[in-house]
Amino acid sequence: MFIQIAIYGLLIALFPLAIVWASKDSNKYRKLIAVTLFLTFDLIIFGAFTRLTDSGLGCPDWPGCYGQANPFQAHNEIKAAEALMPTGPVTVMKAWIEMIHRYLATCVGVLITAQMIIAWWRRSSLRHSPWLATTLFVLVLIQGAFGKWTVTMKLQPIIVTIHLLLALTLLSLLVWAWMRESPPLVVSVQAWLRRLLPIVFLVLLAQIALGGWVSTNYAALACHDYPSCNGEVIPDLDFEHAYVLWRELGKTASGDYLPHSALVTIQWVHRSFAWIVFLSLGLTAFLCRKHEVLRANSNAIIAVLLMQFLSGVATVYFSWPLAIAVLHNAGAALLVLLLSMLNYRARAST
């Protein structure tokens, strides 16, 4: 079964590999990184779609589906589970969503493996050391392990949140790998601004971790209004249960049901910290706009920040529609991508 799934991933990967091979780009290695970056971004969005449609347990085992390599072969088992719980975690549609996510993840793994092999094979002619490509390979293996634990540990919030953060780390490192293969830019950035950008990047990751904690605990609608939370500026907060990391989904550390006040706390902290991110990232992007080479990148960050604010508020007001929720997740990934580019350009400045 594992070999069958690996073959599916390899077959899917043949298409982007063929695009790279047929490309007229003089630097095909850079083209391979760019294609991998694009598909990783897509995979993160599809992963968000998988989570938001409650398809994470659409196939309740790993790496296959009821011991089979695809939902066609497991059709009888899936239909039986769906008949028992028509609105439960296992349906034919959710099984396909989950397995497509796994096939795409395997495809990205194949492409990153190809990057590492090429980086070591051509290490004498490539501009940079192959160790970043090797780091990406190790990271994708760790990410695969967390993908497995996401299923086998029944969507435990800390596992799912780490899975998300690892995906975004992979995205950021792919940006770095792609940009260092690009022609260098001539730009002079003040030392204090170069030091500020990594700090702002960590602030963004902290907010994404808080947002992941909201999503993995199903706390998106714990506050039904905005800017207040259930009619209060500061509601009753329950930090005792909200941020206990090692616990089952929907349960406290002691095994009781998670109180609603904990979900309110998770939502309120995320939306409150969002203002820190909005101001710090917005101001940093505004300061970077003074450099002509960084202007387009900075303008894109400001535009996505505004989109994030609007999509976050719309998620509350329209009671968490799927399309807007996926858009909000995509905006977070896009901010990571854009801020990684900005960090690289500032660091590579003269």
Automatic annotation (TrEMBL):
InterPro entries: COX15/CtaA_fam (IPR003780), COX15/CtaA_HemeA_synthase (IPR050450). It comes from the Bacteria. It holds the Pfam family COX15-CtaA. It is a multi-pass membrane protein. The chain crosses the membrane at residues 6-23, 32-52, 103-121, 128-146, 158-179, 191-210, 268-288, 300-320, 326-344. It is found in: Membrane. Keywords: Cell membrane, Disulfide bond, Heme biosynthesis, Iron, Membrane, Metal-binding, Oxidoreductase, Transmembrane, Transmembrane helix. Pathway: Porphyrin-containing compound metabolism. This is Heme A synthase.
